[in-house]
Design brief:
Blueprint lengths: L12 H23 L1 H4 L7 H31 L6 H24 L5 H22 L7 H29 L6 H33 L7 H23 L2 H27 L8 H25 L3 H38 L20 H21 L2 H25 L3
Helix pairs in contact: 1-3, 1-4, 1-13, 3-4, 3-7, 3-11, 4-5, 5-6, 6-7, 7-8, 7-9, 7-11, 8-9, 9-10, 10-11, 11-12, 11-13, 12-13
Length: 414
Amino acid sequence: MFQQSSGSETNIKLPISYIFFSMIALITSQLLILLNGDMLITGTFRLPAIWSAAHLFVLGWALMVAMGAMYQLVPVAFLTPIWSEKFGFWQFAVTALGILTFATALYLRPQDALVPGIMTLTGILMFLVQMYMTLRSQAKPNILTLFVGSALFSLLLTIALGITLVISMKTGFASEYYQAMFKTHILLGTVGWFSLLIFGFSYKMVPMFSLAHGFTMKPAAYVFTVYFAGIILMVAYFFTGSHLMEILGTFMLLAGFLVFTWHVKKIIDKRVKRKLDRPFMFALFAVGCGAAIHLAAFVSSSVNLLPKTAGPILLLYLMAWIAFSIIGYLYKIVPFLWWTHKYSKEIGKKQVPALKDMMDEKLALPLFILFTGGTVLLIISFFVQLMPIFYIAQSLILMAGILFSYIIAKVLTI
């Protein structure tokens, strides 16, 4: 039915479509949070507007960015072409429409979110089929395959649990397990899907952006084993309520992340490139933030404060680890993607822009300061519960989102 890709290069329109949609979702989600901060700052997260903003941020921005990036990075990382680009465009249309209608339903009438949720699930299932058919043609699976494959499986479980939660809300099905399923939904969607995916592709992008050679990949197996064990222990804690499981789970997640951090440092130590680019350094800064966040979760769990600190820790996890990683890497990926598409075949025939000229480095520092400053102030606002601080913080993050979207869009005009 669908024509398969014949080469290793993906049609530029496919990943760019995902990235363009994601930028709109990012700005909209941050605007919704800004307009509903009066309830959010008091710790009231379960509001239709906040549900809508959260799903626009996680699904509309982070998930769509990840999908678009994977359409470009999978052929490079696994040396196999995308199974079907035409199928990819259909998948984009279904997923984008599903997320848009799902977020709208959550905002206006959460009880009617089932059908849009199923449409979103359909789009994500189409993506999983695409990735499965692509990865199965890989000549020799490796540790990256394990990370990415496990991340994709976590994504499937996340969406399945999300639909189950909507059914439970509407019919009362499995209502006694609602809280456990809700927490597992969040865990698999953040720690299982995004973190494992970032781990996997970091092992490709860190050496590429730092020009590192001669490093060992053996620690990656320990990273996966320990971190995945932490995920399983946390799910067990959600369903049993065992404090011991909670402590062990947060400890294993911390241990796995620290091994990953140490391994990234060892790779960087083998670099040929002396001066690292600011966007890449921001991605490395996100790794440091992630380690600190995991430590905070373990300490909170040890003193039995995790239920009270879960909100700020989750917010930091989404912003300072996941979002900062995506922003840092995307700042590098989009120029490379566009330069390869537009100028790679012109080398030697005429003068073309250098890859470093494809992105305005001068805007990188203000962008990262806005994101970092806004995130720090946002966390402070939750502890002191002062609305002026929240509005300043969220305004900075919204400005950063708009600036980031402008930077990405500007690349496509070069």
